[in-house]
Amino acid sequence: MPESVATFTFILSVSMSAIINFIAAFYTFRRAEASEDALEAEHERSERLLLNLMPASIAARLKQRPDEIIADGLPAVTILFADIVGFTPRAARLPADRLVSFLNRIFSEFDTLAERHGLEKIKTIGDAYMVAGGLPEKQEGHARAVAEIALDMLEVTAALSRELGEEIAVRIGIHSGPAVAGVIGSRKLFYDVWGDTVNTAARMEQHGQAGRIQVSHEARQAIGDGYSFEERGMVLIKGKGRMKLHFLTGRAETADNSTSAAA
C-alpha cells in the first residue's frame, strides 16, 4: 500500500473515531441535561404541591426538620366559615361535573380573595370554606382582614348570581380568640387549626342567616372601628349557651356615604 494511502487511511480512522466519540459524548451530555431538567421540573412541582397544602413558612420548617412535630399555640386568630346556602338540593339535581365546576368557580374566587387579604385558606369541607387570619405568624389587623374578605365574599356571590342567572347565597360566621395550629398526617400532610375558637366560628356560621355575616362579640371587638354592625342580641348557641352576637353589615364609610346621599 502506498505511503500516502496508508497515511490517509490512518487519518480517516482517527477522525471517524473522534467523531463517534464526540457524538456519544454529546448524546450522553444531552441525556444528562434532560434528566437534570426533568428532576428540576419534578422538584418545582413537588414544591408547588407542598405550598398548596400548607403555608410557606410551615413547609420550610417541615423540610428543615422533617421529624419535628409542628404545633403552634396562637394567642389571637380570627376564623371564618362560609357555607353555600341550599347546596344539598343543588347537589341532588346537578350531574357530577357541573356540581364540581360550580363549587370550583365559587371557591376559586374565595382563594383569590384570601390571597389578596393576606389570609390563610385552611380547607374546604364539602360546601364550606374555612379561612383564618393571624397565622401561621402573628398578623396585625387579622380580624379586620377577615372582615374584609367576608364583605368581599358577599359581593362575589352576588356578582356570580347575576352572571349565572340564579341566586347564590353564603352564610358566614366569624369568631376571634386563641387556637392551636399544626401539621398532621404521615402520608397526606395537612395543616389545620383546632380549639374552641374554631368550634365557635363554625357555630357562628351554622346559627347565622343566608347572605349575612354573623360575628361573635369577641370578633366584633377585634374588628374594631371602621365597620357598621347590627346587633342581633343574645342568641342560644349549641354547645356554647347564650352569646351576644352581631351582624357585620358593611364598611362604616360606605354606610356614612349612603346616609349622606339619602339626606
Q: What are the defining features of this structure?
A:
263 residues; alpha+beta; Alpha-Beta Plaits; 2 domains; eight-stranded mixed sheet; 8 helices; 8 strands; 27% strand; transmembrane helix; cAMP biosynthesis; Adenylate cyclase; A/G_cyclase
Report on this model:
- There is one protein chain.
- It contains 8 helices and 8 strands, in the order H-H-E-H-H-E-E-H-E-E-H-E-H-E-E-H.
- Residues 258-263 have low confidence and may be disordered.
- It has 2 domains: 1-53; 69-262, 2-Layer Sandwich (Alpha-Beta Plaits).
- Helix 4 (96-116) packs antiparallel against helix 5.
- With 263 residues, the chain is an alpha+beta fold.
- Strands 1, 2, 3, 4, 5, 6, 7 and 8 form an 8-stranded mixed beta sheet that branches.
- It starts with a helix and ends with a helix.
- It is elongated, with a radius of gyration of 29 Å.
- Helices cover 53% and strands 27% of the residues.
